[in-house]
Amino acid sequence: MCGIIGINKNLNVTLEIIHGLTALQHRGQDSAGIVTFNGNFKIKKGVGHVSNVFQNIDLEKYQGDCGLGHVRYATAGSTEAIDAQPFAVNYPFGLAMVHNGNVINFNSLRKELNEEHKRLIDTSNDVELILYTFAVNLEKNDLQNITVENIFDAVEKVQKSVKGAYSVLTIIANQGFLAFTDPYGIRPLIMGKKETSTGVSYAFASETNVFDYLGYEVVRDLEAGETVFIDNDNNVHSRILKQNKPSFCVFEYIYFAREDSIFHNRLVASERVKMGKMLSKNLKKSGLKPDIIIDVPNSAYFFASGLAEAVDIPYRRGLAKNRFIGRSFITPNQKKRESVVKQKLNPIKDIIKNHKIAVVDDSIVRGTTSRHLVNLLKKYGAKEVYFISASPQIKYPCIYGIDMSVKKEMIAAEKNETQIAKFINADSVIYQSLEDLQEMYSDFSICDACFSGNYPTGITKDLLEQIETEKLKSNRV
Questions:
Q1: Whose CB has fewer CB within 10 Å in the chain, the N or C terminal residue?
Q2: What are the tens digits of pLDDT across the range 125-157?
């Protein structure tokens, strides 16, 4: 999972992209990068947060009127600088690209590009596969008279051959600006625009909060399988090329996106409040009567407040958060995750002591973070701790870019709720009902594969084992 931004026809493109990336920092902490175009590509990227990578950037050097930006959270491959995005090639025309998502037929596609098209893929980053697949299909045309139809045709061939989840932004040098999504629309991509002194500037980003910061008006979400091409005259061409059943990742609403972002006309904060209210059904069914409800900051606040409102139990902020520590879920491996959690959260003792506490988190994946929190609350005097997950049991690997691709690390894949409660030392564990979550989105097609095992793109046992093996080799578990 990553964050991407692209801006076309804007004289302040470099600064705007960097500012936009800071609004997407929660989507990736491994690396950051930008590319701008002004006759040729200028790329700046490196390992670390946006503020570190661009600390001493010379804005004049990277001046251009269009550009792309990326923050990376590596769910596969390495976290080294060589795998940081953007990527660029000098033929045909010159192409620069960023993406958000995960290619599941990585090995077979790389083999095809190497053997049939003599393209040497020298990184472990999915975007290079998408970039070269697009390039080999685009260069089959008459490059002296390239048309919008030629570009759409090349994208459609990418959508047919590249399997998985992806939202992609591309600069085609001296031709235009390109955005497209996978046939299922699993990963988000939103279009925005604003009036500038030189005319309309169009932008694309993973989340709408970017547009709030930069003063862009939200135009719309790109649909599943859609391509938008903006030519050099700033004409917008759009078409749905290859579309299967739309399957937007529900984990964007549960955890990954910021609460002030909007996807498909649904505010993330409001979705989380609704999910919190739905949790009341299972809390009432359990017969448990907590004294207070607290959240695990920050993503669980709206779940906890919705639950507290529905059951008429006081909500309190029981855990103080060090806001200078990053998100534990997207740190590279379990040892580092545990270190982050220890530094990030501290109980507020007078609120915790002698109370029966319902602590709400967005999910329970591995269980080790939950166990640490339960032990911490009990250490500071909690009488009983009931751990409540705003999402259903995570039982199946995510193959589309969320860092849950090894089944053995998923506690709910092997244990029932009683066993999970014992493992994390909680007095009880309560999960969101998968049926309730599916009912909530009955009017909107979602991907819930990590809960249900129903993969929109389809999956084989061999491919799941291959993805898990690659994950284990990358040392990100």
A1: C
A2: 899 999 999 999 999 999 999 999 999 999 999
Tell the residue number behind the tokens 């955005």, with chain if given.
179
SS3 429: strand
Superfamily for domain range 2-246:
Aminohydrolase, N-terminal nucleophile (Ntn) domain (3.60.20.10)
Q: Give the CATH number of domain 268-444; options: 3.40.630.30, 3.40.50.2020, 3.40.50.720, 3.80.10.10.
A: 3.40.50.2020
Q: Where in the chain is the domain with CATH 3.40.50.2020?
A: 268-444
In 206-309, which ranges are E strands? 217-221, 226-231, 236-240, 248-249, 262-263, 266-267, 292-295
**Residue pair 412/366 in contact by the 8 Å Cβ criterion:** no
**pTM for the complete prediction?**
0.93
Q: Residues near 374 by Cβ (< 8 Å), separated by ≥ 6?
A: 359, 385, 387, 424, 425, 426
Which one, of 467, 458, 435, lies nearest residue 244 by Cα? Answer: 458
- The catalytic residue positions are 2
> Strand pairing partners for 230?
177, 236
Nearest Cα to Cα of residue 389 among 440, 426, 356, 354: 426
What residues does CATH 3.60.20.10 cover in the chain?
2-246
Short-list 177, 211, 383, 226, CA closest to 289: 383
Please name the residue ranges forming H helices in 34-192. 50-53, 106-116, 126-138, 148-161
The DSSP code for 305 is H
CB 5 within 8 A of CB 69: yes
Q: For residues 133 and 352, what is the distance between their CA atoms, to the nearest angstrom?
A: 55
- At position 354, the amino acid (one-letter code) is N
- 464: exposed, middle or buried (Cβ count in 10 Å: 0-12, 13-18, 19+): middle
Strand order in the sheet with 292-295: 292-295, 356-361, 384-389, 428-431
Summarised one tens digit per residue, pLDDT across range 305-317 is 999 999 999 999 9
